[in-house]
Amino acid sequence: MFSSATVMRGSRIGAKLAIGGGSRAALSIGTARKMAKEVPGGTGKRAVAVAEAGPSTYAALEARLNLAFGDSGVMEQVCTHKSYAQGRASHNERLEWIGKRALNLFVGEHLVATYPNLAPEALQDVQHASFGMSSLAEVGRHFGMQAAMRWEPVSREAPAVGLTKVLGKAVQALVGAIYQRQGAAAARAFVAQHVLSRPVDVEAVVQIKNPRVMLVALTRQKGLEFPVARILKETGRFTSSPVFIVGVFCGTKMVGMGFGSSLKMAEHRAAKDALLKHYAKEVKTISLTGDEADVSLFAQEGPAAV
Hints:
Layout: H1 29-34, E1 37-38, E2 46-47, H2 55-64, H3 72-78, H4 93-114, H5 120-131, H6 133-143, H7 163-182, H8 184-194, H9 202-205, H10 211-222, E3 228-235, E4 243-250, E5 253-260, H11 263-279
Antiparallel strand pairs: 1-2, 3-4, 4-5
């Protein structure tokens, strides 16, 4: 049944990123100005203390994720936001567009198969809460993509503002690149391993305002007996801190249980528990691995152009 900036100041902006050959590539003028900082003990002039990711950074990220694009420029494009270099560099917008739709498909079919009792609007809420931009950004941080991102902050004083959205879009672009270069099956496997494996809190999303009324309506819809609340245990009824444990039964089957300092509270929680058990019920063994050879529009025998 329905289951119950930090504002990074100039003194902190000097993150050193790994780059190949021991050299440091220069940032664009716009980024340098926005991420400039006061030199401690200096004469008051501004100096840049940042470095840009290089080929070895992207190669390491690709290896860490066990990917093999066969083109060193793919991961660099994945990690390049359209704001970088005023959009003149090859950025990830098209890959993000592909990845967003692939993610919606894979996540959507996973939720439908896993939570068969959830209504469509509840599925949408779960998808947004558990697999939205913030969640994808956490996946990107787990991958270490923040050290490889190329983008222009919108605020000089708060360069970290907007990073969550930029990282989330980069993860979408990464899925898009896998889908485009390696096909739907590879993209599905990647999403299953790194995105769908994250915990989903259905109970925090499902809204249950009047559980007793909702439970009566649900049992009627399912053709079950009228739900009846019965006291299972109690203690201290005539003291200042009583405790009641109540079960809700449909016939002889207990469908929910709750406790509280009053019978009304215990019955409310028992009805909510019954609804949550129904709507948040998970199907643990699901298989969505079909023949996807004809699904991808991009998978080819040789390397595909990005």
